[in-house]
Write a structure and sequence with these properties.
This protein is mainly alpha-helical. The chain contains 24 helices and 4 strands. The structure holds zinc ion.
């Protein structure tokens, strides 16, 4: 799990894993992303959606998830930590997809006064902008949702929309051959927590007996034939342990996993040891786990991250390369690998760049990758490409003026390919008409 720690690392070599994850920052975790996207892919196959929304995990204790537009779903870490099983997570994802297929976001944009969906995303990306444009101070904050960013506003769909999303989500799950039990369990959990006033969010996101009754009626009319893949449940338990061990108080985590010897408990104990600064113990435990599952990319990723954060870039490179080879599509592991390569030795700048190129190819909006490319190109004395990469990053962070100025500088390059790319970039409608001074 990384809070774009890449940048924190640049700031100080002694910052280790115990660095706090700030409220409302976006965290990146390849394993969690993989699990959630497997569920979404399965649900989307049976829906009208042509693409799978991108997932963002927001550090927040409350149980919440929300879609902001057709392409993004945000999940609070509290939801992962407090849910009992993956059935519940799948039901919430289906519900959010129900809002998307129902076009509720679009309608909501008209209804919402003040904060629009776009402006909240703006705040989010603005955080990323601060990462690049702002000083090191801003980097630590990570991509932040502004304090009190319109979480509540997002939640305020009408009750009609909520019921529509439930119904659509329910159908989606049945068509995907998945058990719908998670709906009832989730609403029961909401009801219980709401009684204790723990989640004010739910006052706007109605969770009442009505919703439970409606789902029960659907289930009677069309009984479930589906189930939930057991491998999802196993992964959920692991992801929950990783989130909890990174984000909750160590004493709470220890209590939760006390005397448990499950794989999830084991991984949680590794992270807790590392958070307490007991690196040798953490490493011994982690090595045992790797011995038991020698093909698990996330274990190598974790060991690589430990090595990286304790300043051993050579070991970090070895483990992260292994992790990349085992999970070639996990771009966040690739990003960490590129950074370890980049930091370990100037000789590795080209190899780092190769990894970064693969990331921006698959995910052109990956601002972090563009920013690291700036550094890698500079190390390789490729000033024109460095300018181009900086222009790409700045454009995505809404700093059109910087983007234009860097692209114009790249246009003067003697490298014809750089010239050409710079000209194409200046034609991008995100930049056209914007002038630098
Ligand atoms: Zn909803």
């Amino acid at each position: 799990m990384k809070l774009f720690k890449l940048f924190v690392f640049f700031l100080s070599l002694n910052l280790h894993i115990s660095a706090e994850f700030k409220q409302h920052s976006i965290i990146v975790d390849a394993r969690a992303e993989k699990l959630v996207s497997s569920i979404l892919e399965r649900l989307c196959r049976s829906s009208k959606l042509l693409f799978v929304p991108k997932i963002y995990f927001v550090v927040d204790k409350s149980i919440n998830a929300f879609a902001t537009d057709e392409a993004k779903i945000f999940i609070h870490t509290g939801l992962i930590i407090k849910f009992k099983n993956v059935k519940q997570l799948a039901a919430v994802l289906a519900h959010e997809l129900g809002h998307i297929t129902g076009g509720h976001m679009h309608r909501m944009n008209h209804e919402m006064k003040g904060a629009t969906a776009a402006s909240v995303i703006g705040t989010l990306l603005g955080g990323a902008a601060a990462l690049a444009g702002g000083g090191m101070e801003a980097l630590i904050g990570g991509a932040m949702l502004g304090q009190g960013a319109a979480m509540g506003t997002f939640a305020s769909f009408s009750r009609t929309h909520e019921k529509e999303a439930d119904a659509a989500g329910f159908r989606m799950m049945q068509e995907a051959d998945l058990s719908t039990e998670g709906f009832i369990e989730t609403f029961e959990l909401f009801k219980k927590m709401n009684t204790f006033g723990e989640i004010p969010y739910l006052q706007t996101h109605p969770s009442d007996q009505d919703r439970i009754n409606a789902i029960k009626a659907y289930r009677e009319k069309t009984p479930d034939h589906g189930a939930i893949p057991p491998e999802w449940e196993q992964e959920f338990q692991m992801v929950q342990a990783i989130f909890m061990a990174n984000l909750s108080k160590p004493s709470e985590v220890e209590r939760f996993y006390y005397r448990k010897d499950t794989p999830a408990a084991k991984i949680a104990k590794v992270i807790i040891c590392a958070r307490k600064g007991q690196y040798d113990q953490a490493l011994t435990k982690l090595n045992d786990l790797i011995e038991q599952s020698p093909n698990n990319p996330y274990l190598y990723e974790m060991r690589g991250q430990f090595a990286f954060e304790s300043g051993n870039s050579a070991n970090a490179v070895r483990d992260l390369k292994k992790a990349v080879s085992l999970a070639p599509d996990a771009l966040s592991i690739r990003l960490l690998c590129a950074q370890a390569l980049f930091t370990s030795s100037s000789d590795n700048a080209q190899e780092a760049l190769d990894q970064l190129n693969r990331i921006t190819q698959d995910d052109p909006d990956n601002v972090m990758a563009w920013l690291l490319k700036v550094g890698a190109h500079r190390k390789l004395n490729q000033a024109g490409q460095a300018d181009l990469a900086q222009a790409e990053a700045a454009m995505r962070m809404g700093d059109a003026r910087l983007a234009v100025s860097r692209a114009k500088r790249a246009q003067k390059s003697t490298n014809p390919k750089v010239k050409e790319q710079a000209t194409m970039l200046l034609d991008d409608n995100r930049l056209s008409g914007k002038e630098d001074d």
